[in-house]
Design brief:
This protein has seven helices and no strands. By secondary structure, it is an all-alpha fold. It is elongated.
């Protein structure tokens, strides 16, 4: 078994973590859509936690991934983690600052994920879908200067629901690939 196969097998064994993250993101998205009247500080802390976890996962993926986009994925992971920590530690008192931080993050994350998707053949379609979703959400958020908290919460909620579903599907695909790899190893053990 090659070193790459071992790394791919180790990543496939983490399918449950990807599905768990997807389920959590989906639930947060539903919370945003169902309860858009929560306070701004609640939204900033929840968004901060999401950005922090997303950043850590992006950094972890960049370590195990192969291809040219690893550096860009690590960069977006670091930027996401920093933005998440800022939102958690200092929830902003104005909606304008929160909207700017979130809108810029969505656009930067979308562009970086889009570019890095072309260097990684596995999961390319879902990476491109998330990238387009993030970029469109960022553009909508930034181009609507008078956006209200309720509208912002619903937009973010919809984006999180779709992202959660895509992460869940990606975890399911990892699970399937892990089972296929295990079956292949049992059928043709290394000598």
């Amino acid at each position: 078994m090659s070193r790459f196969d071992e790394q791919q097998g180790a990543l496939a064994r983490l399918w449950w973590l990807v599905m768990l993250f997807g389920a959590a993101v989906f639930c947060v998205g539903v919370f945003f859509v169902v309860s858009p009247h929560e306070t701004l500080s609640t939204f900033t802390v929840i968004a901060g936690i999401f950005l922090l976890v997303d950043g850590v996962l992006a950094i972890g993926t960049s370590i195990f991934a192969r291809g040219e986009g690893r550096g860009m994925l690590a960069m977006i992971g670091v930027l996401s983690a920093i933005a998440g920590l800022v939102l958690i530690k200092k929830p902003f008192g104005t909606l304008v600052v929160f909207v700017l931080v979130l809108g810029v993050w969505f656009i930067v994350a979308g562009v970086v994920r889009f570019v890095s998707a072309f260097s990684e053949p596995e999961g390319r379609a879902s990476s491109i879908a998330i990238a387009i979703l993030d970029t469109v959400a960022g553009i909508v958020i930034l181009s609507w200067p008078g956006i209200g908290l309720t509208t912002l919460a619903v937009i973010i909620g919809i984006v999180l629901i779709v992202r959660g579903a895509l992460f869940f599907a990606g975890g399911w695909e990892l699970r399937r690939l892990g089972h296929e790899a295990d079956s292949a190893l049992r059928a043709h053990p290394a000598t």
